[in-house]
Specification:
Structural class: alpha/beta
Bound molecules: iron/sulfur cluster
Number of strands: 12
Shape: flat
Strand order of the largest sheet: 10-9-11-1-12
Largest sheet: 5 strands, parallel
Distance between the termini: 53 Å
Strand content: 15-25%
């Protein structure tokens, strides 16, 4: 059986940075450490940190006064920062810089009096953080079907931004619908769907025609992992999202000659290796890596972490 291994896959620069932040805080201070929301949307990453004494919280009031709180890669709203200050928490911000970029676009458009359409998933952590920057100026749109029902105070003063982890093709459909309805709409200065999301989807789109089945390593609540499954299905292929090799159902491999293996931006590489080992030993797979883009992206650790290092 032929197995194509997509490259790029797995951890992006934002996830690398966020995971390193929690590692470093554990090293410097040890538990108890509180992380607001899952640091990244991956079950294995979260459970590993829980075993090492990290507590994940969904409400700032769960962190005792004067403790350390880390903000996840998905970002937070100003209201959360305020709550942390009121509890005198030490804040370490692991928000991905590409999410922060979208926050800044929202702030700029809001300051100029625009109504902003946020294209994304309303309940995702990233959406909650971004919308929280200007809640009275933002309307969340989940699909192109929502566009005909939009109502705004001034149709000539509208702009859009997007979540960073959307399906590129689905987001494009929504943007086209917005442009048709609001010809004066302002776009963000630079694409909001991030390089990692785009590259991983592109690899699946390009390589899927060569296989019968696509396996994506990632957690069910990971937006960019889910979008890789969508991309494969759009290409007419069977596709499954699995947290790890234990979820591989041998029935999927019946009458299958070629498989594409990839991983969402929050899925650790050792989980990919475990899946490949199983495919080799149980199904005699021959692995071939296909590289479409050499990313070479990395992000600096946040200043708040450097400050913590100095005072420790
Ligand atoms: Fe940042 Fe993109 Fe990774 Fe999200 S998927 S953490 S936006 S690089």
């Amino acid at each position: 059986m032929k197995v194509l291994l997509a490259n790029p896959r797995g951890f992006c620069a934002g996830v690398e940075m966020a995971v390193e932040v929690v590692d470093k805080v554990l090293e410097l201070r040890g538990p108890p450490i509180f992380v607001f929301h899952e640091i990244v949307h991956n079950r294995h990453v979260v459970e590993d940190f829980q075993r090492r004494g990290v507590t994940f919280i969904n409400n700032i009031s769960e962190a005792p006064p004067n403790s350390i709180v880390i903000y996840s890669a998905h970002g937070i709203s100003p209201a959360i920062r305020l709550q942390s200050k009121q509890r005198n928490l030490t804040e370490i911000d692991a928000t991905c810089p590409l999410v922060t970029k979208v926050h800044l676009e929202v702030l700029r458009f809001a300051k100029q009096g625009y109504t902003i359409f946020f294209i994304g998933h309303a309940n995702h952590d990233e959406a909650l953080g971004t919308v929280g920057e200007a809640p009275h100026n933002i309307i969340v749109i989940e699909s192109p079907e929502a566009v005909p029902h939009l109502s705004v105070p001034d149709e000539t003063k509208v702009a859009y931004v997007t979540q960073t982890t959307l399906s590129v093709s689905e987001a494009q459909r929504t943007i086209e619908a917005l442009k048709a309805r609001f010809p004066h709409i302002k776009a963000p200065p630079k694409e909001d769907i991030c390089y990692a999301t785009t590259n991983r989807q592109k690899a699946v789109a390009v390589l899927s025609p060569e296989v019968d089945l696509v396996l994506v390593i990632g957690s069910k609540n990971s937006s960019n992992s889910q979008r890789l499954v969508d991309t494969a299905r759009e290409a007419g292929k069977r596709a499954h999202l699995i947290d790890d090799t234990r979820e591989l159902d041998p029935k999927w491999l019946q009458n299958t000659n070629g498989i594409l293996v990839t991983a969402g931006a929050s899925a650790p590489e050792h989980l990919v290796n475990q899946l490949l080992d199983r495919l080799k030993t149980e199904f005699h797979a021959e692995i071939e890596t296909r590289t479409l883009v050499d990313e070479g992206v990395s992000f600096a650790l946040p200043q708040s972490l450097k400050t913590l290092s100095v005072v420790s």
